[in-house]
User: Fold these one by one.
Assistant:
Number 1:
Amino acid sequence: MEYAMSATASYEPTERTVPTRSRDRASYDRATVHAILDEGYVCHLGFVRDGAPVVLPTLYGRVGDTLYLHGSTGSRPLRMAGGAEEPGLPVCVTVTHVDGLVLARSAFHHSMNYRSVVVHGTARQVTDETERRTALDALVDHVVPGRSADSRPADAKELAATAVIKLDLAEVSAKARTGGPNDDAADLELPYWAGVVPVRRTYGGVVPSADLAPGIEPPAYLGALR
Amino acid sequence: MEYAMSATASYEPTERTVPTRSRDRASYDRATVHAILDEGYVCHLGFVRDGAPVVLPTLYGRVGDTLYLHGSTGSRPLRMAGGAEEPGLPVCVTVTHVDGLVLARSAFHHSMNYRSVVVHGTARQVTDETERRTALDALVDHVVPGRSADSRPADAKELAATAVIKLDLAEVSAKARTGGPNDDAADLELPYWAGVVPVRRTYGGVVPSADLAPGIEPPAYLGALR
């Protein structure tokens, strides 16, 4: 009897996903990686242009083990990713959540609690229309879950103006720091406060568009944003 | 009569700091750039390794028109930046603040309110001891203003274990989006809510270290974090 191959529980570490230091903070666990990615919507996309690095903030969405990014068909990295048959654009995509400021007695042991994911790979244009629609829905729903079904879908002209690129989640790692400061034993009696200041992303009260038609209330799914 | 040269009000745009699109969102105003940098403390550092891009989150501090980054002497980008006399490491440093989710009637016009700064340049090791101490204080104070004076300064061994690199703010631009959704006129009567959900970074109640000596209260400057 044969079973469908299911995704393995972990990504395979590679030479460039094993950090040179703090290896105990690295993880290749698929669920951990997905959870970090799904909590965010802005990534930092790195690529090489004329031999020099470029890092740009951009939105992303995830579907299974594929990361989707989009932009104008005129934007630089999306043009550089080429067509579906071309070699694609080597990229590094990084997503970071800051969870706390770690204050130690010593300046040296000050740190940050965070969770981050780094993805290495080759970004390629998505040309299939169905996949492009799926990707764009995923991008909208990554920011506000449920929103893509509650807005006007892209028409043919808008679709033509939008470039979508994709990146396989294959060479990927997560890194995290948690907990309090790691002061040296000799410093514990120093008269400086030590501990953690939690950092969170929060949402303020919604601001309706000035030209919103009367009687349209904020949708319930906005209440689920935390 | 001669006056000391003061910093100009704006950075000079270059071919790579002028965006291919949304040029009206770009700014080279020095005060704008500094304000965005000073509101953050985590940047995304991009560099090229074996021809491929790498993007890592890391802390930074600013002193005038110099950005300082630090790390273990064993960390990859800091080793690659070489010594003071060496050519240095081409980098791109990007800082991004998300200010709001922009929900339009059309999926296409969904957007993000944000402010970001992108710095291109060559990172070099800081070897002068006085400048290294200034840089490390700036890094700590960037996260929690006032903290460097209220902790134990680095000793010789800690200083030796810390690499500091610097990057001139010269080829730099800011980009920002503000305001509500830009829906097409034909979409204004659609029955979808439209507006902005503000996003903020907030701080939770402080968590004292489990081994904190009794009687040490959280310092007043923590109250200034917003």
Number 2:
Amino acid sequence: MRSILAASAAVLFLAVNTAHAQSIADTSAQLRDRAVAGSAAYPVLESLTTEIGARPAGSPAQKRAMEWGVAKLTALGFQNVHTEPFTITAWVRGPESAEVTAPYPQHLAILGLGGSVPTPKEGIEAQIALFHTYADLLAAPVGSLTGKIAVVTQPMVRTQTGEGYGALIAMRAAGPSEAARRGAVAYLLRSLATSENRLPHTGATRYAADAPKIPAAALSVADAELLDHMAARGQPITIRLSLDSHTVANAPAWNVVGEAVGREKPDEVIVIGGHLDSWDPGTGAIDDGAGLSITTAAAKLINDLPRHPRRTVRMVMFGSEEMGGSGEAYAAHHKDEVAKIVAAGESDEGPGPVWKVQLPKGALADPAMSAMTGVLGPIKVVVDPTPSTESGSDVEGLQSLGVPMIALQPDATHYFDIHHSADDTLDKNDPKALDQSVAAWAALIYAAAESDIDFRAAAK
Amino acid sequence: MRSILAASAAVLFLAVNTAHAQSIADTSAQLRDRAVAGSAAYPVLESLTTEIGARPAGSPAQKRAMEWGVAKLTALGFQNVHTEPFTITAWVRGPESAEVTAPYPQHLAILGLGGSVPTPKEGIEAQIALFHTYADLLAAPVGSLTGKIAVVTQPMVRTQTGEGYGALIAMRAAGPSEAARRGAVAYLLRSLATSENRLPHTGATRYAADAPKIPAAALSVADAELLDHMAARGQPITIRLSLDSHTVANAPAWNVVGEAVGREKPDEVIVIGGHLDSWDPGTGAIDDGAGLSITTAAAKLINDLPRHPRRTVRMVMFGSEEMGGSGEAYAAHHKDEVAKIVAAGESDEGPGPVWKVQLPKGALADPAMSAMTGVLGPIKVVVDPTPSTESGSDVEGLQSLGVPMIALQPDATHYFDIHHSADDTLDKNDPKALDQSVAAWAALIYAAAESDIDFRAAAK
């Protein structure tokens, strides 16, 4: 008798749960269709890139961007709109130039890496040691580069996932210190980029504590290839490099926040967002105006529902992703709340379309989550059975405190053509791809917010 | 009897002529196949862009380019290699910058137009008057732009023929004077370009004698679109523009010449070539390293024949096309020889492939020329029955003295993505397209040089 009762209860529970999952899926599908019909993403992105443009963390433009973010989230109808200030050491680019002085005098298109020390005022003129791969540089003995400018020209691989970038990021982040350990006086790398053009791609570098800090810059792909062609002739090549920059300690920065407050469990929160800061050469349109606009538009669709989901959806515009700081600040500020942060996800790999979602381990056992295969399939999104392992660097701080990650993977095939370069402008964004991305985010985040799923428990 | 004899003579003449035409076509086809199998074009272009790079007329780099040209033509085995000096007024770019100062402070990517006067040292800061088309600017009344910076943002049309450029070139060449007549203090135009990127495209402008000379620059396409987005908000927009440049009177320049001397009529000459000078931002790879390399490689294939054609094929590397001067100098230097210049053609619209050739009026009546339809068809070149009307600006001087033009039209669909910008680098050239272009040039020019055709008489 007990087992029959228990079985009936289980069936009943499953039936109720399935009915609830179906109701969730229906609303998710409505949000999806609304987004595809035209979301707020492109107008938000157009506003940000037109009215603000480049907005490196710590710059006057980033303060304007913060004010823009507060005004935008307010105008879009979010609740609890506010800023969460923190401080960073801002890095500010000055005038930069590079040229081959011998044997073939030619101008080189470069961009200093974020965080690079400047050269002396008169620049550095030295012979180069050219390595066709980063592994070749690492194989060079200590002392072998004394007095030279190390140049690494390994090309980046184009992939749908962005893995070509991950595979080569040490060449930018760690390369200057590795070169310095071997005696180099400066470091140049081929831009981590998949396009063939004359615009260099910057990005942050991180000096090791135990190596001299040497100036470092990215060559445009075309200029790296020019050096390959020159080097093939076997004559010594001399380059003059001049980089200027300064840092500002305790520069103000802000995470900007707005919420769609949950109707039943407002203290249970799903954090989504993108980053508001950008590199300085472009207008920060694909990185990360796109991700910011996609998640803002998705949160707006959820916020506009006459019946909010049970849990709160919190939109965060992170204020210092490129040089770091906003994710750490967010996690520190919210460490007491972290058990109530149900999940988090960041959109920071371009305007899409999204082609894959990954959920925390075990989540697909929940009917509300498994129903997403049906909701997202029509907009060509795969629900990957492999659990998510990361989502974006601004939510890594939360992840390290145990918050489960929701990951939506945009098609990154062309992202690194533009990323971190002056070419990162509005025109590179396809409004339809933005809307499709909003559809995926809105549908999935709504489902997580309306469901009772405990991602942490599901993973056990 | 006389009529039978006359008819027999005519048949005999036709038969001999047809046999000769067939023999010409056979050799032309051999040259075509040699070129397609791999010509000297890419190695010549790689050498020029690697060892010299940017080489504006009147610069030290252009002197190095001249020396390179002499050495290259000599090394390739040409006869009568020499330079023909002339002088120009060189225009030298200095530092340049532009920014929106209100309502949305943003950097603008610009390039001063060749020939532009500088701004005052402190720059010019003024409200803009934005026109979406050049016709709108021309429709503005005299005096209506007083004190303003005129901005024209009309986009260029992508075409296979390059006609989109021709249709809009007045916007760059005449725009500054038209704006000045209406009171403008400076002029900005959307780059004459078909790509969506952040690199502006320069080019020469020509001031009218009866208008004030105002500073003029090209905006990148992305920046022109940014101004369109800002202007749509209806608020006044202010721009600060700073351009520096100077001119050098009587700067030395050179046309560099080499010949494949004709075996029977060495004084009858077919002039072909491209231009050796380039704009300063790129390495002059497609403009006009490509055309220079294509014609050099074609002339080399002809010169390498154990039996030279009857007439001389003369390869000319013109020394100042972009700001003008080399075509005029060439025509002036050769005005006494001009009756013996059988035909001329310039390759100055990129690396190809060639898709169309046009011959002087009446030429297709000659069997050697009509046989070209069979020789060029397999490499996908149309022999257009419409006569050629022009070939390139360096041969306009000869054309005005009555020299017939031979025109080979490369596919220009993507040429204006890159043309006159920093993106004009080696990697944009497809070696196979270069070889196909060499095939078309070598086959056609050989046929003209080996035949007896008198293009001037054929036109009558």
